[in-house]
Amino acid sequence: MADGLITRPVAGRGGGGEGAGDVRRPWRQTLLLRYRLTPWWARVLAVFVLSRVVSTALLLGFARVQATNAWTVAQPDYGSFAKMWDGQWYYIVSQLGYPSVLPMTADGHVAQNQWAFLPVYPVLVRGLMVLTGAPFAPTAVFVSVAAAALTALVFFRILRRFLPEGSALFGVVLLCVAPLSPLLQVAYAESLFLLLLAVALLLLLRRQYWLMLAALAVASFTRPGVVAFGLALALHWGHRWLTRSSEPFDVRERVTVGVVAVLTAVLGFAWPIVAAVATGRLDAYTATELSWRADYIGYGHLLPFTSWIQGANWWLPGGSGLLFLAVVVVGFGLFLVSPWARRLPIDLRFWVASYALYLLAVFFPQSSTFRVLMPMFPLLGALAVPRSRVWRVSLVVIAILLQWVWLYYCWWVDGYDWTPP
């Protein structure tokens, strides 16, 4: 043509044909094709790596302005900064184990000690230290990051059971950039517990109960909370009985679920039993846990479902705290039956409700509350459903901003700090 433009490729002329068509393919179409050819696990890991870049930058930024404190020197390296707070306790467990005689305060109460920190994470870190010769901090960070990456992969498989692929991947994005996601790369057991919990939930959805029990057995010595899974399984049993006309629930499976539920509940009390046997004191574990709330309300006994009332009165005295607590509990209950939450499989909602009830029974609300809420991560699946680009971008931006807020108030140490993570 006179103007030199060719509007249609001609096979066999000057490299035209299919190759020329590829050259003119719009870049967006090319990216979409490459995306579709990428394995699902590679997409999930790409999301995870990018999110770690963000969280690492935030952690290093706070480390650069960190003054000398009880755990580190000024401007500590990443490993030292990642080993603060409970990380130091896990380090002590990895080196010294657990005391057979409980330490006591000057006024005769059980003092803070290692029995509050369950053994799977520090023992695993210790084993890798022996094998590699590496020090505690980088080894602990490696275990946490590896467990977090696997958690992202398992979470994607959970979400794909009820969400399209794009929404499932965005659910993983929300997990990876969540306000407390920096905890996934420090010397804390949260990553490992979330991995075991995610595996257990996936196996529950697949009705692989005995394999699920194996995962829960390890989880019961990783972080507290497995007893709540026993309640979730009891609810699961009841639901399957009521819906047996649509999903068969024969006698063998009824017995299996019942036995696994009971064993799971027993596993939830395994570590307190171990502590009692090792120290000769029946309340060794609970007395140790109560020592952490003594700075707020003094020493006392654990009375189920009273801790949140005590906390509400401590944080907001004069009745306003109780009113706020009632609004939060009712609001959360309504959310679990809302159309948003009902997008989740009922077994995931059973877990979230059971874990929330467990926290109401035993936990004292303080700055660690946000951390102990992390096992409710299946709720992120509800937030991942809307496909609005504005919605999704807004959630990611807000989550990253809240990472900074959480690191500022709960991780970074500024003088006397009473907001432990």
UniProtKB/TrEMBL annotation:
Annotated segments matching region Disordered: 1-21
Membrane topology according to the record: Multi-pass membrane protein
Keyword Endoplasmic reticulum: yes
Keywords: Endoplasmic reticulum, Glycosyltransferase, GPI-anchor biosynthesis, Membrane, Transferase, Transmembrane, Transmembrane helix
Major localization listed first in the record, in broad terms: endoplasmic reticulum
UniProt-recorded name of the protein: Mannosyltransferase PIG-V
Subcellular location: Endoplasmic reticulum membrane
Stretch forming the signal peptide: none
Pathway: Glycolipid biosynthesis; glycosylphosphatidylinositol-anchor biosynthesis
Bilayer-spanning residue ranges: 40-63, 136-155, 162-180, 212-235, 255-275, 322-341, 348-364, 393-412
